[in-house]
Amino acid sequence: MHRGMLAGASEHSTAVAADSVAPALAGPSVGAEPPRSDDTAVLTRLSVDELVESVLGVDREIAALHAQSTRLLAELHRRGVEAGAEHAVHDPRADRRSSDTGDREADVREQLGARIVVAEIAVARRMSEASIRIQLDEASRLAALPAVLAALDDGLLSPAHARALADGVSEVPLPLRARFENLVLPSALGGTPAAARRRARAVRERLHPQSIEIRAALRRGERRFVFEPDRDGMAWLHLHLPCVDARAAYERVDAAARSLAGAPHDPRGVGQIRADVATELLLFGDVHGDSAAGSPARPIAGPALRARRDEAERLPGRGGRYARFRPTVNVTVPVLALLGRSDEPANLEGYGPIPLGVAEEIAASAPSLTRILTHPETGTVLSVGRTSYTVPADLRRFVRLRDESCRFPGCERSAGACDIDHTRAWEHGGETAHDNLACLCRSHHRLKHASTWQVERPPGHPSVLRWTSPYGRVVTDSADPPF
After folding, report:
1. In a domain, 381, yes or no
2. Which of 450, 449, 465 lies closest to 408, judged by CA?
3. pLDDT tens digit string along 188-210?
4. How far apart are CA 281 and CA 378, in angstroms?
5. Which end of the chain is more exposed for a tag (fewer CB within 10 A), N or C?
6. Transmembrane ranges (predicted)?
7. Rg of the chain over CA atoms, in angstroms?
8. How far apart are CA 188 and CA 51, in angstroms?
9. 230 and 339 belong to one structural domain
10. Which domain holds residue 256?
């Protein structure tokens, strides 16, 4: 948080926190610098009780600052309509889309204004727009609970308690929010955030104007499947779906895993077997025949995975309806690594560094290969140029491999799901060349053309995009090499 924002905390909340902190180590006052490394000697002289009281004092200051941040974010959330009226620009393409969807101009401007405010905050705080939208929605709900904000000001609630109550009040009608607050606040003041969330959920259920059947039917439209990269060659898959389906899917995987657990010479735990069973179900539509018969299950990796692929192709009726589906996976390998003169890792598109051995496995089983040569010193992809308006397939592929994701600052949407945009418009003299093309997701592509956001490439830096927000904030985005 910027120091200018910290300095605006209420004097009352600062005094409450400062009074409760041990004199030997007063908690950091509003706007103060964080403790220096030489404060360690002071810390070692404090008793456990004094350390706990100091932590509680700092917690109270954090709570007060969270209340102030909530009020600021709620006001920014309210300013969306003004931003749309001031910074929306005429876009003929938007007119065509509007005629198809029936959106009215006022609605379009309001939605665009909210997007402008979200993008402004996101680039200023170097956060994703999805995170900012969540914070703005939460702040708007929390601002409608004045007693909760007052408790935050006084350090009587933590931000975690406040988030639980803000989540619970969603969709509670405005006339009933005071009643909601009266019913949930005592529990939050005396319990944990988890307990406050349970209480808020129960009260929300009582006060909600719609039946749970209607809400469940609407929420089913929010189901999704999400890929989240993790470190060291691993990743998460998240499924958001109706609870009955989720529980049934888990029980099926768990039952299969427990039937295989404890087999001789199988070192895997139940958690690992669950992951392997789920992998087989997703990739092949069933669990390996030997495993189902009770034989030791094989870890799904390396040669075993290739053997399963070969088996699925030899048996056309096996593996479910998607057994023959071939995904496109782009792996970039430094040329010196292939020659054995470097230990640099390979790069999996949409994920990041992976072991060279895994990349070689993928290459060995791939039905076709696209050669992607990287510069041995900088790691950047060697470029080609084009001069026609339509982006040729090879140039489109090159730009997506180079950019990896949307080039709007902070956006992580995969380049494969993005539009290819001319930074300098074709009608204004821009060329269809690698140094005038960039990947923009559909949302930010529209934002560029429908608002006063501006983008340019600084002279001498063809891989850099310099964005200027409607409020004058300048931020750059670079197409970094994969390593």
Report:
1. no
2. 465
3. 998 899 889 989 888 888 888 87
4. 41
5. N
6. none
7. 28
8. 24
9. no
10. 224-314
